[in-house]
Design goal:
Elements (H helix, E strand, L loop, with lengths): L65 E3 L2 E3 L6 E2 L8 E2 L2 H12 L4 E2 L6 E2 L2 H8 L10 E2 L8 E2 L2 H11 L5 E2 L8 E2 L2 H11 L8 E2 L8 E2 L2 H8 L7 E3 L2 H6 L5 E3 L2 H11 L17 H26 L22 E2 L8 E2 L2 H12 L5 E2 L8 E2 L2 H11 L5 H10 L10 H5 L1 H13 L3 E2 L17 H8 L8 E2 L2 H11 L6 H14 L1
Helix pairs in contact: 15-16
């Protein structure tokens, strides 16, 4: 064999053995092994202690450098190094290196079939699988009298026997203390009770400035994480823009959630809402559901309005408050047929309408009126028990000075008070007068009015004294008082035109 300190090693081997189906190598054919060394070890040469070539020896004993991850390393058995950044671990077998790499990647391929727990190594899975077996399956039994403990490994049994023999391997390291204990937890308890302030627990936090301690190591590991100021990050686009593209860090999950609730409120993306914000995501989801229902309602109404069916003369059904979509809660009382959008609304309807409950009672003296809904009670208090202002009390005194008895008012009985109020409201432009019987052509259609009603309407000369401020009120008045059906769009357009003129 010839060794060169340069860039290659030439080795001549004599072999006459055929391996498998390969062709046997003749005795005269030399074998050449070429190894490219690293730059820092290119001048490596064997020392006298590494090379012992006696005249009678037929072999040359060399401690050659080993190729580890592409680099020649002298005098090492751990030739398989971890290539992860910042990790200097090395192993003697590729399988051990593969197991170690899973600690960096987080892969846990070994899963327990009984409880679905996963592990990095197969040996860990085997050790865990023993916990599902009965204690009688443990092969190593303590032979001491009155001791029936069993163990999975001989090492655990030896430790147990040392305890029987009185061994105390855990000694206190505090200066001047010679106490020793058989169990580690006994040593920790001793240190807490003797060499630590009162109330200290076995696992203290070693972070600078932190005086907390914990009963278990698991609690300590969970606590140590709060000392990491960059544990949680906010990746909202507004935070990234303010901080110049870098994330905003928070030490605790609570701090991050508080930041999200205060700095990034849930916002409705719908154009009609003008970036309306909500305190919770639940409120935003409920609000967005209303947008979806409104869009669906508009589509249904457009289809119904533009459809050519036999009932073209019939007016379109009035839009219900809240729409028709989502009314899944129906009243089960016979003959009712009402439906609601929530279970709470259905329950309230059943209590008020069918059970007659009146839970909202006026608390004013000598009143005692009760209502089924809160808004009715609030309206009653505002109208009946509102404190009078100075201007209103003065006008009431001046108007009622001639009539000592307020319970009898001839103007109210004859309708003169309403007519007086109506004339003042129409003159000020706040209200409009009912156009009956001189209905404009835009409102009066032959298809909506029977011939008898049309003849009566055209031949009537008495003007209607009803006044109104909303198109909705006029439509209801014409239907209830004059038996005239009108189209909503026509009435809205007419009222808008009349208000524009006034």
């Amino acid at each position: 064999m010839v060794f060169s300190a340069g860039l290659q090693t030439v080795t001549t081997l004599q072999s006459a053995t055929a391996l498998g189906k390969r062709k046997a190598i003749s005795e005269d054919t030399p074998l050449v092994l070429r190894l490219t060394s690293s730059p820092e070890l290119s001048s490596y040469a064997p020392t006298d202690s590494e090379c012992d070539a006696g005249p009678s020896s037929s072999k040359i004993q060399l401690k050659m450098p080993i190729l580890v991850n592409g680099v020649l390393m002298p005098h090492t058995k751990k030739r398989y190094l971890c290539t992860h950044a910042g990790c200097d671990k090395a192993y003697t077998k590729p399988s051990r290196l593969a197991e170690h790499k899973r600690s960096h990647t987080g892969q846990r391929p070994f899963v327990c079939e009984s409880c679905s727990k996963s592990y990095l190594r197969e040996t860990h899975l085997h050790a865990h699988a023993r916990t599902h077996l009965p204690e009688s399956a443990r092969p190593f039994v303590c032979d001491k009298l009155d001791c029936t403990k069993r163990f999975w490994t001989s090492q655990h049994l030896r430790n147990h026997m040392d305890w029987h023999n009185g061994a105390k391997p855990f000694t206190c390291v505090e200066e001047g203390c010679n106490e020793a204990f058989a169990k580690h937890h006994q040593l920790r308890a001793h240190i807490c009770s003797t060499h630590a302030p009162p109330g200290t627990k076995p696992y203290p936090c070693k972070h600078e400035g932190c005086t907390k301690s914990f009963a278990t190591n698991q609690h300590l590991r969970a606590h140590v994480k709060i000392h990491d100021d960059k544990r949680y990050t906010c990746i909202h686009h507004t935070c990234l823009a303010q901080s110049g593209g870098g994330p905003t860090y928070f030490a605790t999950w609570t701090a991050l959630q508080h930041h999200m609730r205060t700095a990034h409120l849930p916002t409705c993306p719908h154009p009609s809402c003008n970036e309306r914000t909500f305190s919770t995501q639940k409120g935003l989801r409920a609000h967005q559901k209303l947008h979806e229902e409104q869009e669906l309602e508009q589509d249904i109404y457009a289809v119904a309005k533009g459809s050519d069916n036999e009932a073209e003369d019939e007016p379109l059904r009035k839009k219900r408050r809240g729409g028709e979509i989502g009314r899944d809660w129906k009243c089960a009382v016979d003959g009712c047929g009402k439906d609601f959008k929530s279970k709470k609304a259905l329950t309230t309807h059943n209590n008020v309408t069918h059970l007659g409950r009146r839970d909202f009672v006026c608390t004013h003296d000598k009143c005692g009126r009760s209502y089924g809904y809160k808004h009715l009670l609030q309206r009653h208090i505002a109208r009946a028990h509102a404190p009078p202002t100075s201007s209103s009390s003065h006008s009431e005194d001046s108007e009622d000075s001639d009539s000592p008895d307020d319970t009898f008012n001839i103007d109210l009985i004859t309708g003169y008070s309403y007519a007086k109020h109506a004339r003042a409201a129409v003159a000020s432009g706040k209200m409009l007068r009912c156009p009956y019987p001189h209905l404009p052509d835009d409102l009066l259609t032959v298809s909506a009015v029977s011939p008898q009603v049309l003849e009566k309407t055209v031949g009537t000369s008495a003007n209607c004294g009803y006044v109104f401020s909303r198109a909705y009120d006029l439509r209801r008045h014409l239907r209830a008082t004059h038996a005239i059906e009108t189209q909503k769009d026509d009435v809205d357009e007419w009222v808008k035109d009349q208000k524009g003129r006034s």
